[in-house]
Design brief:
mainly alpha
Length: 67
């Protein structure tokens, strides 16, 4: 595996992790504190989820593996 492919693979996993963390943060905060409509929780969740979605779309939405 070339260095470029390894970096792309690491980036894919990082963006999927950020997406998962955003969803997990919202669910865990809601379950622990019962505050499902807190504006601060929305702000953090939206940043994490959108960053994860857009990043994943960059690496999964196109064929970047051409040589």
């Amino acid at each position: 595996m070339s260095e470029e492919q390894a970096l792309k693979s690491a980036a894919r996993w990082f963006y999927l992790l950020v997406l998962f963390l955003g969803i997990a943060f919202y669910l865990s905060w809601g379950i622990l504190y019962g505050a499902w409509t807190d504006v601060g929780v929305y702000a953090i969740t939206i940043i994490l989820v959108l960053f994860g979605l857009f990043g994943a779309a960059l690496y999964f939405g196109r064929n970047g593996d051409e040589e």
